[in-house]
Amino acid sequence: MLSVHLREAERRKNELKPALEAGAKAVQEAAANLSDELLKVINEDVQEIYMAERQIESELRNIERLLSSNGYQIHQWTTLLDRLTSELKELGDVSNWAAIMEKSADEIRDISKQLSKSA
Questions:
Q1: For 31-56, how does the pLDDT look when each residue is reduced to its tens digit (9 = 90+)?
Q2: What's a single GO CC term here (predicted)?
Q3: CA-CA distance, 88 to 90, in Å (whole number)?
Q4: 116: which DSSP letter?
Q5: pTM over 0.85
């Protein structure tokens, strides 16, 4: 009786073996397909990120170039403003000197008139 059950189990095992092998093969193929699809999705995401990174780097280079150019222009404006300030100061000094000279000339004229009246 044991041998009958043993033979029956062996026969059943042999009958199911091709189905098990086919199932295992199907699982392997499904896993391979899933792996391929996941890689495609991940690679697409990585490619999008890479393209975005390149665009950001390009924009950063443009910004750096603009900042450098603006820095140079600011330096030029600062230099021009410093020169203008210096010139205005000198003009103020000349104007002040002229006012002092005019006042001195008026005092000399007044003294000269007084001396001519008393003489």
A1: 999 999 989 988 998 999 999 999 99
A2: BLOC-1 complex
A3: 5
A4: H
A5: no
